[in-house]
Amino acid sequence: MSAVREGLPEGRYGRSADERTDRKLKIIGSVLGVGLLSVVGWIGWDYIAGQSVSAEVIKFQVISDTEVKVHLEVRKEASVTGVCSLSSQDEGHGEVGRADFTFARSASRVDEVVTLKTTTRATMVELVGCRPAASAR
Prior knowledge:
By secondary structure, the chain is of the alpha+beta class.
């Protein structure tokens, strides 16, 4: 009696078409994955390196119905003059004050308290953004 074979002997005639397709898909997936990671890394580096002036609101205190004292910590290159924009809002989330403040001191870190004038009593202060003075508008 002879045994009937149902398939080709394993590994005798090279890789099957499915194995070749799987390998190609793995290579393509790896190349696309590395490309995606590279793009995300480049965008992140560009965002971080492109910010030459940044700031943080440490605290604020409502002094009266028409002014708020804001403590800002500004980080910049010592040779750069920075401009930071602040906005304040009332209880109804309406804007009641907005102003730009310039930081020209030759230091890389500046702690300063500024006064923001408002039209009515403010309940919140927001740092809108910072930029070098050369690009100030």
